[in-house]
């Protein structure tokens, strides 16, 4: 009770012709509000339980590329807090080149026998051939310059009711090529309405064969024609023209050794372009961020985005009595004795919304 769960509802759904299924943004039947709140987030169903035990039901809809639809029910059993089994973190494998670093995603959904939410809290036993640390819920591993072979370390996880466990990460380390190879820039395409400001994550599908970190080259935007585009941090922020049409410009990326590559972004401008909802992602406040404090401010929009707009233009709201929104769109949370899970809503300029959770430790966790 009082916790959250993410249900990958499409995982066991199939199409008789093998077509891709798309989860519809609105539930066909919502859960009983006395038991909690449910909503669709990208391709999952999210649920925050109320304070009482019980069984909640929701019905979601899927659609194929031909517009055919079907629905199914999700059953969520809400347990009281009497018994608590520890999480069962999975063993993780990763690859990296000597002297390079990699961010390793930690699977947390579905690893707790009781259905509790789980978070990564730190590195339990250190790596032997590099360094590992937790950054934004992921593990960042940096291999030593001359390291090769296999390295192993463990990480700690904590469930919502205080049970802990450790998981293992196995990293394979290979020597880089004698000659630095250039990164690979993969072309991108966006569809927007005229006169819109859009933030494009052009780096999301770009890679480097040597495993080097890759970044956008400031001032590396070329042939923008009627587009107003510039590099802002790790995104390309552009304003679409007022006229319908297809516009292409080029951007440059660079690896840590200065090797460059060029990619293209095609912007399809149409007054009839479908409006897309924003994407809100959870935020977890580490215990160390609340030490000696009575409140904490969370920049919830930092990891959110708007596929046909800019995250900076999203509006944040919340109904939580212990939270308020700053003029900059951040969430200030008053700390309580126990852990809090706060729901917030991000709304774009078209009125479309997305929800996510902010998980804040309690004063007793210090």
Account of the protein in words:
By secondary structure, the protein is mainly beta. 0% of the residues lie in helices and 45% in strands. It folds into four domains: 3-78, Immunoglobulin-like, CATH 2.60.40; 91-174, Sandwich (Immunoglobulin-like); 188-269, Sandwich (Immunoglobulin-like), CATH 2.60.40.10; 283-365, Immunoglobulin-like. The chain is built from no helices and 27 strands. Strands 7-13-12-9 form a four-stranded mixed sheet, with no helix packed on it. A four-stranded mixed sheet has the order 14-20-19-16, with no helix packed on it. The two termini are 22 Å apart. The model has no long low-confidence stretch (mean pLDDT 94).
The tally of beta strands, per DSSP, is 27
- What number of structural domains do the residues give? 4
Strand content: over 45%
The low-confidence parts are none
Q: Based on the structure, what is the oligomeric state of the protein chains?
A: single chain
Structural class comes to mainly beta
| CATH architect. name of the largest domain | Sandwich
Top-tier CATH class of the largest domain: Mainly Beta
User: Separation of termini?
Assistant: 22 Å
| SSE series | EEEEEEEEEEEEEEEEEEEEEEEEEEE
Principal-axis shape equals: globular
Mean pLDDT score: 94
Number of helices: 0
Side by side, the strands of the main sheet go: 7-13-12-9
CATH topology descriptor of the largest domain: Immunoglobulin-like
Characterize the largest beta sheet: strand count, sense, and whether it forms a barrel: 4 strands, mixed
- CATH homologous superfamily designation of the largest domain: Immunoglobulins
Share of residues in helices:
under 10%
Based on CA atoms alone, the radius of gyration comes out at 22 Å
Pfam families: Big_9
Organism: Cellulosimicrobium funkei
Protein name: Fibronectin type III domain-containing protein
């Amino acid at each position: 009770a009082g916790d959250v769960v993410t249900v990958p509802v499409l995982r066991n759904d199939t199409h008789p012709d093998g077509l891709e299924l798309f989860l519809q943004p609105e539930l066909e039947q919502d859960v009983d509000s006395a038991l909690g709140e449910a909503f669709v987030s990208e391709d999952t169903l999210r649920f925050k339980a109320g304070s009482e035990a019980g069984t909640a039901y929701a019905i979601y809809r899927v659609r194929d590329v031909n517009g055919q639809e079907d629905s199914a029910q999700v059953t969520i059993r809400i347990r009281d807090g009497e018994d608590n089994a520890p999480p069962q973190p999975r063993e993780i494998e990763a690859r990296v080149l000597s002297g390079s670093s990699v961010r390793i995603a930690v699977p947390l959904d579905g690893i707790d026998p009781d259905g509790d939410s789980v978070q990564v809290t730190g590195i339990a036993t250190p790596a032997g051939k590099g360094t590992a640390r937790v950054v934004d819920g992921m593990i960042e591993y940096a291999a030593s310059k001359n390291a090769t072979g296999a390295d192993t370390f463990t990480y700690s996880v904590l469930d919502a009711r205080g049970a802990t466990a450790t998981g293992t990460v196995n990293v394979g380390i290979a020597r880089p090529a004698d000659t630095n190879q250039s990164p690979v820039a993969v072309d991108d395409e966006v569809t927007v309405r005229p006169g819109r400001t859009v933030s494009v994550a052009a780096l999301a599908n770009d890679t480097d064969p040597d495993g080097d970190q890759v970044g956008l080259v400031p001032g590396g935007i070329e042939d923008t024609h009627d587009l107003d585009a510039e590099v802002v941090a790790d995104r390309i922020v552009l304003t679409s023209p007022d006229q319908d049409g297809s516009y292409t410009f080029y951007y440059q990326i660079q690896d840590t050794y200065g090797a460059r590559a060029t990619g293209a972004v095609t912007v399809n401008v149409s007054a009839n372009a479908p409006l897309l909802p924003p994407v809100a992602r959870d935020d977890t406040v580490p215990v160390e961020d609340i030490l000696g404090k009575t409140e904490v401010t969370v920049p919830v929009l930092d990891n959110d985005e708007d596929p046909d707009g800019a995250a900076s233009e999203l509006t944040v709201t919340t109904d939580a009595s212990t939270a308020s929104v700053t003029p900059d769109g951040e969430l200030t949370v008053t700390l309580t004795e126990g852990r809090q899970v706060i729901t917030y809503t991000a709304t774009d300029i078209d009125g479309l919304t997305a929800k996510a959770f902010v998980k804040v430790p309690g004063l007793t966790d210090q």
